[in-house]
Amino acid sequence: MSVLIYIENRDGKFKKLSYELVSYASQLAKQLNITAVALSIGNVDEAELKSLGNYGADKILDVQDDRLNVLVNKAYTSIIAQVAEKEGADIVIFAHNFSGKALAPRVAVRLKAGVASGVTALPGSLDPFTVQKGVFTGKAIANVVIKSPVKVLTLFQNSVEIIETENKASIEAFQPVLNDDDFKTKVLDVTKVTGKLLLTDAEIVVSGGRGMKDPGNWGPLEELAAVLGGAMACSRPVSDEGWRPHDEHVGQTGKIIAPNVYFALGISGAIQHLGGVSSSKHIIAINTDKDAPIFESADYGVVGDVQKVLPALIQAIKEAR
Amino acid sequence: MKILLCLSNVPDTTTKIRFTEDNTQFDTTGIQWIINPWDEFALTRALELKEKGTNIEKITVINVGGKATEPTIRKALAIGADDAVRVDAEPADAYFVAAQIADFAKTEDYDIILCGIDSSDYNGSLVGGMLAEFLDYPSVSSVSGLDIEGSEVKIKREIDGGQEHIHTELPFVAIVQKGISLEPRIPSMRGIMMARKKPLNVKTPVEAEALTEFVSYELPPAKSACKMIDAENLQELVGVLQNEVKIL
Questions:
Q1: What ipTM did this prediction achieve?
Q2: Between 20 and 30 A from B8 (CA), which of A165, A216, B55, B238?
Q3: Which domain holds residue B193?
Q4: CATH architecture for segment(s) A204-320
Q5: Does the domain made of A2-183 have the CATH classification 3.40.50.620?
Q6: Where in chain A is the domain with CATH 3.40.50.1220?
Q7: Mean pLDDT of A42-52
Q8: What is the pLDDT of residue B75?
Q9: Nearest-CA distance A57 → chain B (Å)
Q10: Which residues in chain A are contacts of B138 at CB distance < 8 A?
């Protein structure tokens, strides 16, 4: 009887989202009076593994294998399913991100488990097991009942608080049974920017839209992001035009983010764009058009030209420090 | 090579969302239906590959849905898919849908199965991965690049802060995201005419369970009015960043 959490690492380190997952799982495990077990796959050192205990993991299972330093869907699925069986998992939890979306559905079929993906809160009811998730890209919220004995959840980022507890976690190595059939996909090479703040991790996001008019006009946005320690983003037309890279596109078909503060600069606020950012805690919009729909979704608005307002704002921020 | 493309029929992305029957049903009155945007990226890529002379024998589209989804399936045929299958059942949940598609895919030797990474209605991100597991195929998720050279498939996968190039054995399931293709296609008059003659086979569903149920819906709480700040008074905005957002 347990809640099992799959914890991914990035270059051997856990991310904030991992601790959100553990906090969520340990609260759920308490409600059900069962244990919270965290599973880490890939090379992670003992101190990092132990840190999961700070947020309520009772046991940490560690799978180290050089073939598993990149995501191999079938092999990972097999490991998670083996651990779920060994630990008698009633609930298996993933992050609602690249790896969670890749693994949760496969694991669910193997365990014949129903899945609620992009869950935003602890269950409203344990029997029937009912959770909330966003639908229609942020335009509505659904209450989903999972009917199967084993349940799989993927947790939406920044939707639960991280709660520290006394660390009582034990660490155990786990040896999965893997065969060649699990490794039919191979990663040939990896290109990765290191040291860059990832958009999905960022608490502060500075985003520009078509209203920026030209790819050469991004200087003040980059400066604001640098001054505040934030990440850069853009709307779809901007990435489609090639003004900014595709991985900065936020919105319905791009990345869905939920930072503490989202600066929407020269963004009119099309409904598809809002779908990707409406979960932000604070939205600050600057736009020349006082009737732009973005002001209906923003918390704070300035009517004005970004090229003029932003340098003045950056100056004022520097002076306030 | 044969490609199977999983297609979901979804409300137009600008739709105002409403619910009926005490917020237990999605209100479909007056809705315009479209090909799910991610499925459209995948379809566009399949057509690009076929047009540039890649060895693609056939592109089949499959949808699980009632007769009402046929106009959307016909649109995919009009854009350039070769034939289509509709599994005649309401898509009860992702597990049910994946089981239906798996049952069809088992009978045909498709080399590549393409699925969108998400659907803009229920935002599950589930069918592709579930399908791969039902079929015991390898799967690659977050695919932003797909090329075929001879019998070799080249895949680019998005990861946090970068990309990977991946080799896979066939058959496999590619779960695709934005970036995989250029602009979506608009059906031509000729395409629409031709689509009427292309096969759209209706398949009886197999026995499968739904393991989840969407029991009710809510609209997000109304947002309080935007506080407007004068462009000449940015000190006020700095105050907001200090006291409300608390980042300074």
A1: 0.96
A2: B55
A3: 2-223
A4: 3-Layer(aba) Sandwich (3.40)
A5: yes
A6: 204-320
A7: 97
A8: 98
A9: 25
A10: 73-74, 184-185
